[in-house]
Inverse folding.
């Protein structure tokens, strides 16, 4: 009873703003309470700003070499020191944010598109096609993800873009399974039968009714997966299967500087820290999103 | 006498499970005339919902399948019609409302979006007209502040309001037949009466034939003219509502009528029909109602009675002997 009164009061507030705004307000209210998530979102925002305004933030170009100042420790002029070619590490990390975030976002968007497509087909139509798609997912998931990405990159040839494609492929089953399981639940809902009973066709039912009701977990999983994708891209870069030097990709930078770890530790420390920070940021934010979007957490 | 619009002839629907074929609906016959309200009554599990889903072509398949008989809509057999044909009929010609108004609306869309979507499916109207038509429909089903309601989400509405919205959606394309599968079961009693009144009113105004499926004989008495009583996948009695209430000629119907609680009765215990509906296919021989019947005779265990009679049909030896 008290709840309905509360709802009534809340409804009046919401009225003026419209339904979408009210959903966002609710979401923001839940998200704001989660301190770690706010920190995570802050970190992510920080890196996004770095990437977008790299050209204005970075004091030097990516490949401005100066042999006279190679392997210099952090100083007022080179905040994070210089590497073996005398390049400014801070500038390279700033430009590296562009590469890492691009890989993270594009790979995840790719996986979401193909995973959702396959997952919806498998879940909605069931039967034979479901078996085929689900077994395909199982096969992909049977490989350790980094091993499968290496295999794909070795077929396509090592480059950052091919690493992106490989990471996208590896993550397709993650989203595919998630969407399939949601679709299996949603398609049994009565409003789907009701939609059929007024003469709606499969395509319309899928796009208008099933997908919008299946998408919340995909958004959460997507955020968490951006972190994994960035980590995988750095891993591939480190192994020489991703971005190639002199691209300032963080994993590639780690790999190129690893021989100086004892006498110039800042050359590996800062690219490594950048990877850790961005991954932690996305994970914290993803956890926060999950809690804020989870209807069971609402009181 | 108005014309027959929907006729179900010897319809058999079975579910194919791991244990073999289970007949859920076993050769039922009934017809609906234009502008008529027909009641279909029976306990849970006697095949009422399966019948309505069969008519709509919405049986979950597999495991469900129509294995025999015909469903004639304006003379056209739609029991095995193509999906594309059914899609044209659904909504436009035959529409349906469901038992659970709480779950029959999509939670992520507003009432307006869902209502206009239904109209748009079969008619191409400009956006302005769509909205005014949606508003008009909401007013027709007796919802106040229709304009604001269009922008609200299902969770902001009560059960009765949602059922009205469902009826508005079902009526959006002026169907000729409306199948209402226990439309009032999930609602509280005062709202039940309002919804029934609304359906009777729509029936009078739009001349849409209504098949009202329910387990509540009281509901049938309130709005229906003719009634079909189903038991275990078969029609056991059919006729005019008044005839059936005054002279039930099947012990099952009699039991159902006696089970309606009476406000003025001094009895402490309510009447119940002993036992429950047999599992489909479990009784191989004799009358399906025999194990629960108060008047059971020897031959009921071995022979299955036929549905006989003219305007008031029944499937029982008791009355066939008198005749």
């Amino acid at each position: 009873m008290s709840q309905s009164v509360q709802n009534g009061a809340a409804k009046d507030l919401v009225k003026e703003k419209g339904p979408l705004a009210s959903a966002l307000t609710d979401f923001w209210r839940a998200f704001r309470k989660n301190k770690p998530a706010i920190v995570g979102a802050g970190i992510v925002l920080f890196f996004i700003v770095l990437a977008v305004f790299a050209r204005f933030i970075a004091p030097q170009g990516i490949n401005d070499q100066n042999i006279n100042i190679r392997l210099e420790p952090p100083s007022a002029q080179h905040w994070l020191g210089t590497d073996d070619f005398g390049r400014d590490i801070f500038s390279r990390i700033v430009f590296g944010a562009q590469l890492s975030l691009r890989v993270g976002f594009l790979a995840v968007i790719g996986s979401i598109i193909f995973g959702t497509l396959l997952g919806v087909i498998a879940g909605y139509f069931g039967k034979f096609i479901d078996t085929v798609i689900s077994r395909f997912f199982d096969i992909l998931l049977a490989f350790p993800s980094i091993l499968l990405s290496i295999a794909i990159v070795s077929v396509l040839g090592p480059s950052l873009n091919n690493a992106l494609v490989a990471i996208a492929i590896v993550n397709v089953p993650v989203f595919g399974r998630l969407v399939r399981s949601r679709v299996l639940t949603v398609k049994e809902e009565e409003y789907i039968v009701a939609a059929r009973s007024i003469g709606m066709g499969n395509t319309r039912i899928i796009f208008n009714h099933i997908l919008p009701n299946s998408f919340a977990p995909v958004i959460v999983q997507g955020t968490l997966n951006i972190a994994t994708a960035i980590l995988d891209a750095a891993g591939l870069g480190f192994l020489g299967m991703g971005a190639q030097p002199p691209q300032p990709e963080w994993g590639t930078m780690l790999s190129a500087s690893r021989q100086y770890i004892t006498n110039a530790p800042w050359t590996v420390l800062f690219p490594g820290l950048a990877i850790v920070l961005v991954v932690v940021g996305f994970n914290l934010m993803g956890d926060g999103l999950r809690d804020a979007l989870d209807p069971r957490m609402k009181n | 006498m108005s014309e027959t619009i929907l006729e179900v002839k010897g319809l058999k629907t079975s579910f194919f499970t791991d244990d073999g074929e289970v007949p859920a609906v076993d050769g039922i016959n009934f017809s609906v005339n234009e502008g008529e309200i027909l009641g279909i009554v029976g306990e849970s599990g006697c095949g009422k919902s399966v019948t309505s889903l069969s008519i709509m072509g919405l049986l979950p398949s597999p495991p469900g399948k129509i294995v025999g008989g015909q469903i004639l809509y304006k003379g056209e057999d739609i029991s095995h019609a193509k999906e594309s044909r059914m899609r044209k009929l659904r909504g436009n010609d035959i529409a349906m409302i469901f038992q659970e108004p709480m779950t029959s609306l999509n939670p992520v869309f507003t009432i307006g979006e869902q209502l206009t979507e239904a109209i748009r499916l079969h008619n191409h109207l400009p956006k302005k007209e769509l909205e005014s038509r949606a508003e008009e429909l909401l007013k027709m089903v007796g919802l106040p502040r229709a304009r604001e309601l269009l922008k609200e989400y299902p969770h902001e509405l009560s059960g009765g309001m949602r059922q009205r919205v469902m009826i508005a959606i079902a009526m959006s394309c002026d169907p000729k037949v409306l199948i209402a599968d226990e439309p009032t079961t999930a609602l509280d009693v005062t709202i039940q009466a309002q919804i029934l009144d609304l359906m009777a009113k729509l029936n009078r105004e739009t001349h849409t034939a209504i098949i009202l499926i329910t387990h509540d004989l009281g509901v049938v008495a309130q709005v229906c003219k003719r009634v079909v009583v189903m038991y275990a996948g078969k029609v056991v009695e059919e006729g005019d509502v008044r005839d059936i209430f005054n002279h039930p000629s099947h012990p099952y119907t009699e039991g159902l009528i006696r089970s309606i609680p009476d406000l003025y009765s001094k009895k402490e215990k309510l009447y119940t029909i002993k036992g429950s509906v047999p599992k489909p296919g479990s009784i191989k021989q004799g009358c399906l109602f025999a194990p629960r019947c108060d008047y059971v005779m020897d031959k009921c265990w071995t022979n299955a009675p036929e549905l006989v009679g003219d305007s008031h049909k029944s499937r029982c030896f008791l009355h066939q002997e008198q005749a």
The longest helix of chain A spans residues 89-125.
